[in-house]
Amino acid sequence: MKKTKVYLQRPLFxxxxxxxxxxxxxxxxxxxxxxxxxxxxxxVKDIKKFKILNKTKRAIKLTIRNLFPGxxxxxxxxxxxxxxxxxxHCMSLNKKPWVMDVEYVNQFWAGGIPKKQKKFILRLLKxxxxxxxxxxxxxTEKGILKEFxxxxxKIEVIYPAIKPxxxxxxxxxxxxxxxxxxxxxxxxxxxxLEVMDRLTKKYDNVEGxxxxxxxxxxxDRYARNKKIKFRDVMPKEELFFQIYPxxxxxxxxxxxxxxxxxxxxxxxxxxxxxxxxxxSRSDLIGDGKTGFIVEEPKNFQTEDLxxxxxxxxxxxxIEKKVELLIxxxxxxxxxxxNCLQEFKKGKFSIKERNKKIEKIxxxxxx
Length: 366
Prior knowledge:
about 375 residues, alpha/beta, six-stranded parallel beta sheet, 12 helices, 14 strands
């Protein structure tokens, strides 16, 4: 059987999304990615190197925003023995068939700032070489169409897919809450922690874990609550085989996430997620089915994530939803089953993803 050979074009500026690890594993037998040997996108092996890489990436993006705010996120890759280029949230300048996956619309610009160079970008997207734009979610698609309505016929929504890990639930008499993120304040860690603090004090059988770069002042503030454990960012294998199998509810406000892989990774372990509306959240979480989505805050600033006052009503709503899951085991169990079903036959299914992407690659080279 002749395979479609695909070159995975990575962005110039240190893209590290786990999307590409999930894309190139459990791949269709009709597809071969020709340049992934030794690559491990999104897998944390060395925590120290991981933190340095993150700081470097942010510094590079900030420099681009300041010096070249309208720079298109496009570049050439070497020619070789492949049929089609899959651009990892960037565009190709090659005169060869290419498709592009997009997490959010600002990825058409290297510095993440839209508006400038739109004519050049549109010319690339309308070219005969650009075959398809793969929007990660419907929210992504909506954002692209707002900026580039001319390419409506080239956009298709394909959700990132995960093959559920074979795991055995590590049982406990307690109900275990989790927040996990590499950016504590930015992803709503303080608010998740406050909810954990309240509920672990209210219920004897509830405990919590925070896995993040938690600031020292926060560690000191909550040090008296011995039912909450604090861990640093950890390798993915440890998270998957030690933490998720012990977790009953993920509290992940995710105010600023355009996607949020922590959400679908938790769902793949049958863990209901409580989050806050906005961006792609309603694409990922079925409200009342696989978790809860509370009301989106209006006109909040990122500084609001550093305190408990500006969004106190939202924090109270998160607490109510988590408490509902704590008190209702039948609801937790039903949601857990619904979560797993999404990865067997639903929108996050490997089989469904492979079928769609196989068709897109094949049509790109016809």
